[in-house]
Amino acid sequence: MLLKKAGDKMYHGEVVRKIRINKGLTQKEVYSGIVSKSYAIEFEKGNHSISATLLLDILERISIDMDEFLYISQDYRLPEQADYIFRYSKYSNDHDLPALKQLLVELQSYHGKIAEVRIAEVRSRIRIIEAVQKTGKYTPLSC
């Protein structure tokens, strides 16, 4: 079955349908007391939107939280900011210089203040790790 796309992503209703079917739940089990049967059908087809409150009620019925839902709706990829934080933290904590340098190269293709801050952050971490590897200790610069 082809899914309607909103840009690169499934509509929320289509994601709920995918999860509901994977969990073996009926529409009645999920939507009863939340929205009508006809609304549920159209919502799952991507033809209706739904309020955040109702979406949270539906997610509770299918036993997932909003973070997991968003992760699934983005084709099991982290949002850009979460991906950056995860990668930066992991590479920094592992003292993985090649991975940090690759991250720096990737960041240099972006523009704007956020990119500039991230570039400075990664450069700084690279310098710190290189200094520790060279001298065995970290000595912050005095101002």
Task: Give your account of this protein's structure.
The structure is a single chain. This protein is an all-alpha fold and 143 residues long. The chain folds into two domains: 5-73, 434 Repressor (Amino-terminal Domain); 80-135. The protein has helices at 12-22, 27-31, 37-45, 52-61, 66-73, 80-93, 97-107, 113-135; strands at residues 5-6, 9-10. It has a two-stranded antiparallel ribbon with strand order 1-2. A hairpin with a 2-residue loop joins strand 1 (5-6) and strand 2 (9-10).
Task: List its salient traits.
single chain; mainly alpha; two-stranded antiparallel sheet; 8 helices; 3% strand; DNA binding; Lambda_DNA-bd_dom_sf; HTH-type_regulator_Rgg; HTH cro/C1-type domain-containing protein; TPR-like_helical_dom_sf
Count of helical regions? 8
Largest sheet: 2 strands, antiparallel
The strand line-up of the biggest sheet is 1-2
As a percent range, the share of strand residues is: under 5%
- Order of helix and strand elements from N to C terminus: EEHHHHHHHH
* Measured distance between first and last alpha carbons: 62 Å
Task: Give the full name of the CATH homologous superfamily of the largest domain.
Answer: lambda repressor-like DNA-binding domains
Domain HTH cro/C1-type: 16-69
Organism: Enterococcus devriesei
GO molecular function, one term: DNA binding
Protein name: HTH cro/C1-type domain-containing protein
Summarize the structure.
It comes from Enterococcus devriesei. The protein is an all-alpha fold and 143 residues long.
